[in-house]
Amino acid sequence: MRPLSPRIKIITCLVLFHISSISLWTIHHHSLQFQRQPVELLNKAHEYLTGSPRFPVHKNDIGFIFKTGYGNQDKITAILDTFHNLQNVVLIGDYATRTGTHFKHKDLEIPVYDAIEATLRALPPQRNSTRVRSYEKLTAAIAAGDEEVAGSIARAHGWELDIMKWISGLEIGYRLLPNKKWYMLADDDTFIIEASLIKVLSQLNPQKPHYLGKGIGGKVEADRFAHGGSGIVFSGAALSRVLSNTSAAHTAALTGELGDALTTRLALANDVHLDERFSLHFNGERPRTTRIRPDRPCDPIITFHHMSTADIAEFQQKLLGVTSPVSWMVLWTLYEGRGLETFITQPFRSDCDHVGLSDTVTEHVETKEDCRRLCDKFGSDCLAWTWTAGSQTCHTNPWIVIGNEAVGKVTGVVSRGVKLLSNC
């Protein structure tokens, strides 16, 4: 056989390099698509939830870490009331309670641990940090018993101080609640449905590095993170790995913009990746403003966010006697007391709004019938419509919400929406 000429060798190498590059890009591209697009992969009542628990989870297998702040103390008691066993709960904040000032629930006293103090202990002295100065002023006002000044500082700077709680809060929770299979970090206005959480976690091996939450952000993994208000979950194996090297994250907390993004970056740095296949179970809205979409009506919903004490009380009343996981459409039934099929025979509902906030607004719509027909015309881009008589506007959305009383409005769900959302 004649040896290949140098020119042929070069061409052959270039072709092989091009093919390998395409293959690597394809693998990487599909990997990112898998992380970002759970709907196409795990639709149809999501098969991973239909079988028996693969890794059974008991309520005591989960440690709950709640972030709070001096300015949000009224919310903590309401959140604590939603748990049956507070020995699985740790509270972390921008201050610490002392003997006699701990939160009390039945026979238990629940202290708040100062996560910012823990962050600063892990760092050299920080004299030029705006956040540290705000924290020092808050601490001094609390020590002086000046609730007015402390409250003012908490309201003005609480959001920035919150960024410094995330990593130390996880460390405190992991230390105080050792050997849990799972750990969940949430805000003090996040309501957690434990039965739904257990349903999802019971299909996952806690000895593997799982990181779950509602993915938001950019289009590539490095720019995405789990939304903190919707709650984030680490398996015990994952959190152990995440907390193995936190020094850079503590430093970043002094100037970083988002605590949840900081947490995800720390996880990535320790080779723990957010699994967005489970994003649809985490929700960042109140029950009445939660968007019920056609890709998830039968799936368990784990969290609700921005919950006021009144929201919590109302939701607890709706949940009386409910011990099983709550799906998105069960949520509708709990509040509405009737199924969507009633819209087939009674298409118009007065003084209600099942659209909520909408970017699609059509003006000069003269009747409610016209608004309904317009929604039908929009196809899959419209499941619910709301017509306002005074302004003659028609609002539409490709989802539905429970909504609040809306005097002067007429709303409805088109037959396509009834079919898509009722097929469990």
Query: What portion of residues is helical?
Result: 25-40%
What is the CATH top level name of the largest domain? Alpha Beta
Silhouette = globular
- Strand proportion, as a percent range, falls in 5-15%
- Radius of gyration using CA atoms only: 25 Å
The CATH topology of the largest domain corresponds to Spore Coat Polysaccharide Biosynthesis Protein SpsA, Chain A
Going across the major beta sheet, what is the strand order? 5-2-1-6-11-8
Unreliable residue stretches: 6-45
Describe this structure in words.
The chain has 424 residues and is of the alpha+beta class. The chain has 2 domains: 59-281, Spore Coat Polysaccharide Biosynthesis Protein SpsA, Chain A (Alpha-Beta Complex); 340-424, 3-Layer(bba) Sandwich (Hepatocyte Growth Factor). Helices cover 39% and strands 15% of the residues. The protein has 16 helices and 17 strands. Residues 6-45 have low confidence and may be disordered. Residues 174-248 form the Fringe-like glycosyltransferase domain.
